[in-house]
Write a structure and sequence with these properties.
Elements lengths: L2 H18 L3 H6 L5 E4 L7 E2 H8 L12 E12 L5 E14 L3 E18 L2 E14 L12
Length: about 150
């Protein structure tokens, strides 16, 4: 595997680490030049850092963290021949536990569809679309549940 593959994989993982640590500003920064969409969301796609950060105000934090773990699997990354664009897809399962009343359980399972671009020799998100395939109990995760 080459350096580009690892850089993209790291970016995909950084998404999970930042949100699970409650670093919502850092999470939004990942989309400074990107589109972020949850397929079927009646509010439509978000474009850029500020729109993504505003959306994140829906996430309920407990002492600064959402008490979630985003688990990505089935990661598939395809880098274009020009080495300047890439696409990826992966599955995600989000686990959450809010003791004592909300035991650990999957609250979301979906499919990430990603586009990346390389600018000034750095990979960044161009677009992330999320397919919400299985939705569990989001009552302690979002102040407004997904429709």
């Amino acid at each position: 595997m080459n350096n580009d593959y690892h850089a993209i994989l790291r970016l995909m993982n950084e998404y999970c680490y930042r949100v699970d640590q409650g670093d919502l500003d850092g999470f939004a920064d990942l989309f400074s030049h990107a589109k972020f969409a949850i397929m079927g969301d009646p509010d439509g796609a978000m474009n850029g850092r500020d729109e993504v950060r505003a959306y994140l105000n829906r996430v309920i934090l407990y002492d600064g963290k959402p008490l979630t773990k985003h688990v990505s699997t089935n990661v598939q990354i395809d880098i274009a021949d020009n080495q300047q664009q890439a696409s990826a897809q992966s599955y995600t399962t989000v686990l959450q536990a809010v003791p004592p009343d909300f035991p650990m359980q999957p609250i979301f399972a979906g499919h990430y569809h990603d586009q990346f671009e390389k600018v000034d020799n750095e990979w960044r998100f161009k677009e992330r679309q999320i397919s919400a395939d299985l939705i569990g109990d989001l009552s302690v995760h979002l102040s407004e549940a997904l429709n």
